[in-house]
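Students often ask what a 'structure token' actually looks like in practice. Rather than answer in the abstract, let us consider Response regulator transcription factor, a protein of 186 residues. Its sequence is given first.
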Amino acid sequence: MGAGTVHEAASVAEARARATATGPCDLAILDLGLPDGSGIDLVTELRSQGWPRIVVLASSDDPYAVRSAFQAGAQAYLLKSASPMVVTDGVRRVLDGGVYADPSVAPVLATGTRVPGTDNTPRELSAREVEVLQLVADGQSNKEIGEELSLSALTVKSHLSRIGRKLGTGDRAQMVALAMRAGVIR
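Now compare that with the structural description of the same chain:
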């Protein structure tokens, strides 16, 4: 898929050490079932260190694990039992700037959750905000969204700012994950 360098790790400690040594790379694919710690905590750490794209690969379709991975900052949740095509599609979607959930865990996300620290839910987004957020989920840049909707990139940025305030996050991936969980976008 175009990777120039691949680093492997067999434990959370080894992954943490390699991540610190290399600094943020284009993509991290993390197994949540590493033997010596929480993969969810590692997702949070990598996001805070500036890793732009994180894909979780897990054996569990447990709703708590799925939600926790997205809340920690993952852009995709894939099952180890998935077909190679599903895994490839998920990784490509993330590399293109989108968010992806394995089709078998997508219903878990559609049940929705309240946004921590706010009284707002993704259902309170305007039709235009939902439209903008769906295009973000499809991996489009502000400029591309603006062209598609006949808006300036600055207007798109304003929409994203309002969406962020309503959802309690300024992170594009988290905005998309919250809206996906609530079934507002696909």
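One point worth highlighting: Residues 112-123 have pLDDT under 50 and may be disordered. Ask yourself how you might have guessed this from the sequence alone, and why that guess would often be unreliable.
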